[in-house]
Design a protein that fits this description.
- The structure is a homodimer.
- Chain A is of the alpha/beta class.
- Chain A is built from 16 helices and 30 strands.
- The first copy, chain A, has a 10-stranded mixed sheet with strand order 16-17-15-14-18-10-19-29-13-30, sandwiched between helices.
- In chain A, strand 11 and strand 12 form a beta hairpin.
- In chain A, helix 3 packs across helix 13, helix 4 packs parallel to helix 16 and helix 12 packs antiparallel against helix 13.
- The longest helix of chain A is centred in the last third of the chain and has 24 residues.
- The relative contact order of chain A is 0.14.
């Protein structure tokens, strides 16, 4: 892990007072006034496509004010292979034309005092971008931006030695969005029966062959969002919050930032097999989007859907990015608002029709999902917005009513939604059929699928622990069923299965709560007496029928089988919490009427306790600023579980970007001969 | 993991209303009125010693009232080897005499309402205990307690097939008390420099060859304490909170509960090599105590120290427990109050003298530690109570003054305390010398050491995140140095190194805090605006000198070297929290005057915000009952890292009890021929 050190940075800056060095960045990845993207410490897969963006900054004011705000337009940029070679001008090195000079201005706040005082620092920028390049020769490279006569920014790049032998035919990549080991532990507690401290069954994740940890931090902040982290997992590049497969430059345009090629694009380009995207989120959400889309702004939902079907340049169609997902063979999820003609869809058009016009089967419910053939590309959009949660689909089904979220946009309820398992198993069948038939290029060189349990994260955000754990258990059930299904169709031994998360939430169970006692107390502080810790945490109330004994003779299973709780709302509930949360109220009971809303906007315009949430609970003061009505992501390393060919590589502790390289190596995607 | 199910439990109980089934147990491990310890689902190492305790309960009142409170004294107990053999009376099976009948009464509250109403359930007990037995033949056993004519309690026991080949000569077992992966991630963030999302160095734990997870839950509650969890790690048996190497029976006597043999006792008995105990806690604390002591009450500190040196029966010296630690070769830690003649020491005597009388070198400071010879057994007690924290020994050294904690009891300050690294390296040298010389039996068959970073847990309890992470970094530094030292003395290839925790705390980092801005605000709610999340979390302020840029040219190290922060109190600090906490105040600044005290007792007798703690911070309301002035343990699985012979076995996900069996197998301790 020890890397080359940059000893050549601008000396004159070192003495400057940088009140904002560690937060409120002028631009992430660019601590000096000269910026190179991809930045220092970037690794590439051999042949992976990427853009280069150079920026030279001249702040007009603030602690870094420089040259009266006039940036050096005569900066130069060269690249050298190895530590001793000649540093060749980039145009010569890559055999491309000199790009046009671009100029713009942006502003930012150096710190919170400046924000309060409304005194932004204004920065003028001179920039160039080189598009759609690649490096194929493994080894170290040095890229140097020289500017302001005396300054240079040096980026050390490495093209990793690629695997030459392909180990895995198929890749099934599961993401439990926001899923941490404390959540897996809690899910095990409520779903798997334990007798005298010994579990009688285990999570499927517990039983995987290989275990690892990955570090989720971002390029320029130690907490990530799902766009940023998915970019790391799919491209092997750390980026910035909200960025999808681009480095965030300082320009306003969300579609001109420097791109990097994703695992899905590489799979299409180098192997040509079918790819699938499955998520319980709206399908333009960050984690599914990041397989195909390239934009600095994850909220460009219409563009994301456009990029699934068309080029990966979004609304900036003049750029020469040559690869795309070429229309994934399977797209299953929610998010009908990007397909129903209207404000959310690309150019306001009927985007179901756009997909159908390109030969897709288009389906809207589980009945159709089960019935649909496996030969054609298939778009399954099963609801407006995020799909319904496992608990609401299986336990509290009345909550599906009145949502007016039918994917066809007719204002009825999406009552017949599939679960993650339904979608994933069908996706396997379609991918497998298309991999072995003419329609899917038929080279039988395998398939690639990402399947996301999106609402682990979404329900943890709203402190709806039960729903989050329901989603986690559904993911585990899906993994179990997928393994069985792959065995049945003879592809298990050919398939690398990887399960991980993109980031965490600081959730943990710390005790038990007697919910009956809690509700019966009228005093806020006395309610907290219902919380039992250590020996008073008790045993799991979720795995036994109410009133029964925790012995073997009382093993019963709920209607959903042995891997789910027998009851979801026991008197003795687990008590859990977060490292950070908005103002809210806790009673540790199941939210009966659908996903929780812990905080709502008060008269002062900031977020306070939702007066209708857990009304019999006690108040818990928040630790976040008043704009946050939900919990937030956290720092902790997340687990990686893997089975199948190439899975041994997933053992141990590593960076999130390594997941990309490990999968790429299992597929030998970096082998130029491939 | 699928185990045999008990289909024969008392049918008449199943219909009873058991308001307390999941919490406020009558007796952990005994959901029916007949109790067998070791309970159902127990695994044994071949030849491991254990006691059996049988209890038949007759509650006088409450929901389980039975036979007017008269327990069946004519219960029978038989054991059968395999599923089909004859169930032989225990006296016949083990070739022992019938134990005397014991009788007692205890009471408990069925739930919190009963506690508030002061209406305990009273239970009369008839009991017998069989002492110091063992099972050597691998396979399944069934133990049956028959009582009340129609009832029986069945315990399925398994003697695991032991390893026949010894892989490891030495075992170095590190415990980071309370250490979770989120803490390791946070420690990495503050101590290891990252550039553009790539760490330039890593924790030693990150670099270990094998990674696993272990489940820490207890026998009868899903949250454990350190006594209970250490019992699992050292004996392979889940037990109850506060119990040290015994199953908790219902009698008042803390020294009559059924014992199980520990890894340290087994190492002494079967191999005869030297053993060492090192901890930064007072040495009678649960985690060190659990290597040698046997008592239901971890607070019997004097007895623990007595048991180190003498028999393992504590104050119940009539019991026939035949093994003990035989006086560990090395005991290093704090806790002078158990050695200075007075109320804390065994029988009020000078226990330094008791150790010296048995041939120990006795030392009291780091100077003496460095100077002491390696041939004799050595007792090093370096402070009253817990030892000083890393931050106070290295950064805020003035905090060592005025403590009046000198281990010699003269009321001066213990200024010359060693750290975990000092103690561990010296312990290795003593154990190695004694393993190869006549004094330590000299069979060169290796040594066993447990080294504990105790104050990760203690500082997390008091929400002193910085001190906790300092202790964690000291542990990591100790592991690194131990590996180097073992290589130097030629024992690295012979030594199994295992690092794990005994339980967690629900700690995680969720963002950054501008501590300057926070302190400058006067409004409670406005102070929370200082918390930055996602992109505003920023980069680590701990790895760079204040005001410098996060580039390679600014790599500097603090005085403690590359594996510790450059500064501990940066303007931009990490913001962290817990799933559960007492009322307290947060400002995210380093506690300058020593370990934090977040809450103190208010006028109402319960715990409230400490008015002198983080006075410039904002209030965070608690989520625990008013008796809790500290944070509490949590559920999450904890990491296991392992190197050396036998370490491959530590991969994957398993129960805490498996750690015992994995270490025992690496040493072939279960091999009867050993």
């Amino acid at each position: 892990m020890k890397r080359r050190s940059n000893t050549a940075a601008a000396a004159f800056l070192l003495g400057a007072t940088l009140v904002s060095a560690q937060t409120f960045h002028r631009l992430g990845g660019c601590p000096t006034l000269g910026c190179v993207f991809p930045p220092d410490q970037t690794d590439f897969l051999s042949g992976q496509l990427f853009d280069i963006r150079l920026e030279v900054h001249a702040p007009i004011n603030g602690s870094e004010a420089h040259n009266a705000g006039v940036p050096d337009e005569k900066f130069t940029f060269c690249i050298q292979n190895g530590s001793k070679g000649e540093c060749k001008n980039a145009t010569q090195f890559f055999g491309v034309k000199e790009p046009a000079l671009e100029k713009w201005t942006f502003s930012y706040y150096e710190d919170l005092f400046a924000r309060d005082a409304k005194t932004p620092a204004v920065v003028n920028v001179a920039s160039k971008a080189y598009r759609a390049l690649s490096l194929t020769k493994p080894g170290d490279y040095v890229a140097k931006l020289k500017y302001n006569n005396v300054s240079q920014t040096v980026a050390h790049w490495t093209v990793r030695q690629p695997a030459t032998t392909r180990k895995a035919k198929n890749v099934l990549f599961f993401i439990g969005d926001g899923m941490t080991q404390p959540m897996i532990t809690a899910a095990r507690l409520i779903a798997h029966k334990s007798i005298n401290g010994r579990y009688q069954s285990l999570m499927q994740m517990d039983q995987m062959d290989n275990l690892g940890h990955q570090m989720t931090h971002s390029l320029d902040s130690f907490i990530t969002d799902s766009a940023n982290s998915a970019t790391a997992l799919y491209t092997g590049k750390k980026s910035s919050v909200n960025a999808l497969n681009v480095y965030a430059d300082s320009s306003k345009n969300s579609f001109d930032d420097p791109k990097v090629e994703t695992i899905a694009e590489l799979f299409r380009r180098r192997i040509g097999g079918p790819i699938g995207i499955v998520s319980t989120a709206y399908i333009a959400d960050a984690t599914p989007a990041a397989l195909c889309a390239h934009t600095r702004d994850r909220n460009q939902y219409a563009a994301v859907v456009y990029e699934y079907l068309n080029s990966a340049n979004g609304w900036n169609t003049s750029l020469p990015w040559p690869t795309s997902c070429e229309g994934p063979d399977v797209i299953f999820g929610g998010g009908a608002e990007q397909f129903i003609a209207g404000p959310g869809s690309p150019n306001g058009t009927d985007y179901y029709k756009a997909f159908a016009d390109k030969g897709y089967n288009v389906i809207w419910n589980n009945t159709a999902l089960q019935a649909v053939g496996t030969s054609k590309k298939t778009l399954g959009i099963f609801s407006v917005s995020n799909m319904a949660k496992w608990i609401d689909r299986h336990v509290l089904t009345d909550n599906l009513k009145g949502q007016k979220n039918s994917p066809n946009g007719d204002g009825t309820d999406a009552l017949d939604q599939p679960g993650l398992k339904d979608m994933t198993l069908k996706a396997i069948d379609i991918l497998q059929a298309r991999a072995t038939s003419g329609n899917g290029k038929g080279n039988n060189k395998g398939w690639f699928m990402m399947s996301e349990a999106a609402s682990i994260d979404k329900m943890m955000h709203v402190l709806d622990y039960d729903r989050a754990l329901g989603e986690l258990l559904e993911l585990d059930d899906t993994i179990r069923a997928s393994i069985e299904h792959l065995k049945k169709i003879g592809e298990y031994e050919n398939t690398l299965i990887v399960i991980t998360a993109d980031h965490g939430h600081g959730f943990d169970v710390f005790g038990g709560a007697d919910t009956k006692y809690l509700a019966a107390q009228t005093d806020e502080r006395k309610k907290r007496d219902a919380i039992g810790v250590y020996e008073s945490s008790g045993l799991s109330g979720y795995t036994v029928a109410e009133g029964s004994l925790p012995t073997n003779d009382t093993i019963v299973f709920g209607s959903e089988g042995p891997n789910f709780p027998v009851q979801w709302n026991p008197r003795y509930a687990y008590a859990a919490g977060f490292g950070a949360n908005p103002d809210h109220r806790e009673s540790y009971t199941l939210n009966q009427n659908g996903p929780r809303v812990p905080a709502t906007k008060g008269d002062d315009g900031t977020m306070h306790v939702n007066p209708t949430d857990h009304t019999d609970g006690f108040n818990v003061g928040g630790t976040l600023d008043g704009t946050q009505g939900q919990g937030v992501h956290s720092l902790q390393d997340v687990s990686v579980f893997a089975n199948g060919p190439g899975s041994e590589a997933f053992r141990g502790v590593y960076n999130s970007i390594d997941i990309f390289f490990k999968i790429a190596d299992a597929l030998a995607l970096g082998n130029a001969k491939n």
